[in-house]
Amino acid sequence: MNLLTWEMKSHTKAKHVVLENYLKAWFPIMAHTFERIIYIDGFAGPGRYLKGEDGSPIKALKIALDIFKQHKVKLMKKDFIFVFIEEDKESYESLLNEIKKLALPDEFKVIPLNEKFDVAMEKILGNIKTSLAPTFTFIDPFGTKGVPFSISQKILSYNSCEVFFNFMSSGVIRSSSVTDHTELFGTEEWKEINDLEPSEKHYAFLDLYFKQLKTSAKVKFVRSFNVRNKKNATIFDLIYATNNKVGLEKMKAAMWAADPMGNYTFRDTTDKNQLVLFEDSPDLTPLKETLLHKFSKQSVQIQKIEEFVLFETPYLSTHIKTKTLVPLEKEKTITVNRPSGSRKGYVKGTIINFP
Ligand SMILES: C[S@@+](CC[C@H](N)C(=O)[O-])C[C@H]1O[C@@H](n2cnc3c(N)ncnc32)[C@H](O)[C@@H]1O
Q1: 94 lines ligand 1 (CB under 6 A)
Q2: In which domain, by residue range, is 330 found?
Q3: Ligand 1 near 53 CB (within 6 A)
Q4: Do both 50 and 70 map to the same domain?
Q5: Could you tell which of 1, 4, 16, 43 is best to mutate to test the pocket of ligand 1, judged by most ligand atoms within 8 Å of the CB?
Q6: CA-based end-to-end distance of the chain
Q7: Same domain, 289 and 187
């Protein structure tokens, strides 16, 4: 199958918006911090859709190029490595053609590979002598075949390496051609949940994948972003895994900034007991309740609340102060001890007393 014959669907746009939002933050932070950074698109596609929209590799190159131009003096002589893996010959040729149209600086090294993702990645990972440079890996298959958990596990064993995986749970649930998911999950435990109802199976499979990331790959932070159609059926879940606190913050912001488009809704599904719909003006009652419950009868520094919200909830730091703590303080549910010199707001050192 070839993307050249495809019209870009709006759910693909949703995926691209999150990717773009994130890369606009990831490239500058990583490029300024490290001498070499790597971007891998494991299922790259032909680089262009039917109506001329950029495919994910071209989007990534253009974003990196913009950032490079803006900060040329500081970024000159650094290495920006792009690995694009595409199995289909025609799509691969098309991608090469699209890359040629871009005027890329010498600092950009593009490595296109006409291979299967797992085969190419085994070679790349097998050739590492010391450590893998900070790498963002986008894994965007059609289904769930050919995406062994062991690859993500190896990537994530290196510091500053991240995985962003389009987990086609519908493929796992409905596929009749792929009946063995041991490679995908890196465990046989999927068999224990295979007979559940489809709706329960979705979360059970996601939970198992998270568990594998947290326990086998020992990843610190995992979040998932769920895209549903008008009938409320899941189309895909984007799973993000990282050990980097700043990465987590930027990816959550990237997900919230993906405006709901047309017939699709987006929500955080990292914790099935804490599903949060991404909206412009979200209902923050669950965040209030979570904070009141978590910190019940405690006096807590604002920094601790911010870390908890970042690590343990779908919410952003921008949801904490004006939208949550101010109303709680006004209604006298919480009281606040501010450091001397501070009369309002919640500057560093502020202590919140929870009932
Ligand atoms: C969902 S599309 C990728 C879309 C692209 N990431 C984008 O956003 O523009 C999946 C692509 O993976 C390719 N593909 C399928 N199986 C593959 C495999 N095992 N390894 C590498 N590429 C594969 C397909 O030919 C197709 O172009």
Answers
A1: no
A2: 285-353
A3: no
A4: yes
A5: 43
A6: 59
A7: no
